[in-house]
Amino acid sequence: MNDTDLLAHRFEEHRGRLRAVAYRMLGSTAEAEDAVQEAWLKLSRSDADDIENLGGWLTTVVGRVCLDMLRSRTRRHEEPLDDTFVPDPVIRPLSTIDPEQEVLQADSVGLALLVVLETLDPAERIAFVLHDMFAVPFDDIAPIVERTSAATRQLASRARRRVKGATPSTEPDLGRQRQVLDAFMAASRAGDFEALLAVLDPDVVLRADSGPLVRGVAASKVVRGAKSVAEQALLFRQLAQSTRFIRFVLVNGTVGVLNAPEGQPQSVMGVTIADGRITEMYILADPERLGRLDLTGLEA
């Protein structure tokens, strides 16, 4: 094994953690992979022998790359991302959990949390993710966000308050999640409005992200309240009736639904469930982003 192969091997030992860090920072699986690849390029051009803590060095590099990407997003969007935005979901089979993917499927990286993280200032997001999720010391985060350690601590503290106030509680048991989602899908197929109301929280919020090109009834939208969400479910009841293409999967560690005719994903739905009712629904139906999803292990 030559020096390049050895360095690549050492890098691969850290890839899973780096990808998890970048995904939480960016909410995009494709951009997370780009950030990790950029870290490898920087490492391959550096004198690795001078790096005492390779994992810490790589995490710092990924943090800086992600901060630049987040700032670039802010410059491109004069207005913040609207309420219809749904982060890229991580989808895995419901029957098994790949040990290498467990870090991406923890409750702490649910879609609800990623939606809240999208509202943070880039530096706040970096400080919160690195410190609160990956236990990186503030002294190590400070140079990334170009603040003092004390100021970096304040960034994370502000982010923590916003996350705590906006992230909904969730049912932890996958079996009970499946029961609630089963009931929702059955009510949708049957066109049973009252049964839908029974499984939806009165203040349920539906976010449907169809991308910028879809128009009409299937366009991106935010729908609030059980009655309005139930009406939307009845409007698209034909999707629920196509059981041949509908399958239950893990979406960011919780039970969700994948609609993939002929293996081509048309939509992914993640939910938040509390006290036996659905409180949040996240539907990604953007054809471009769906085409980039990793559906490893979901082949029919």
| Side-by-side strand order of the widest sheet | 1-4-5-6-7-2-3
Briefly note the structural class of the backbone: alpha+beta
How many whole angstroms does the radius of gyration measure? 20 Å
Order of helices and strands: HHHEHHHHHHHEEHHEEEEH
If you average the pLDDT, what whole number results?
87
Number of helices: 13
Number of strand segments: 7
Which regions have little confidence, pLDDT < 50, spanning 5+ residues? Answer: 103-108
Question: DSSP strand (E) fraction?
Answer: 15-25%
End-to-end Cα distance:
39 Å
List keywords for this structure.
single chain; 300 residues; alpha+beta; 7-stranded mixed β-sheet; 7 strands; 52% helix
Walk me through the structure.
By secondary structure, this protein is an alpha+beta fold. It has helices spanning 3-26, 29-44, 54-76, 102-105, 111-117, 122-133, 138-145, 149-166, 174-190, 193-199, 226-235, 237-241, 287-290, and strands at 91-93, 200-209, 221-224, 246-251, 254-259, 267-274, 277-284. A seven-stranded mixed sheet has the order 1-4-5-6-7-2-3. A hairpin with a 7-residue loop joins strand 5 (254-259) and strand 6 (267-274). It is globular. The two termini are 39 Å apart. Residues 103-108 have low confidence and may be disordered.
Give a quick rundown of the structure.
With 300 residues, the protein is of the alpha+beta class. It has helices spanning 3-26, 29-44, 54-76, 102-105, 111-117, 122-133, 138-145, 149-166, 174-190, 193-199, 226-235, 237-241, 287-290; strands at residues 91-93, 200-209, 221-224, 246-251, 254-259, 267-274, 277-284.
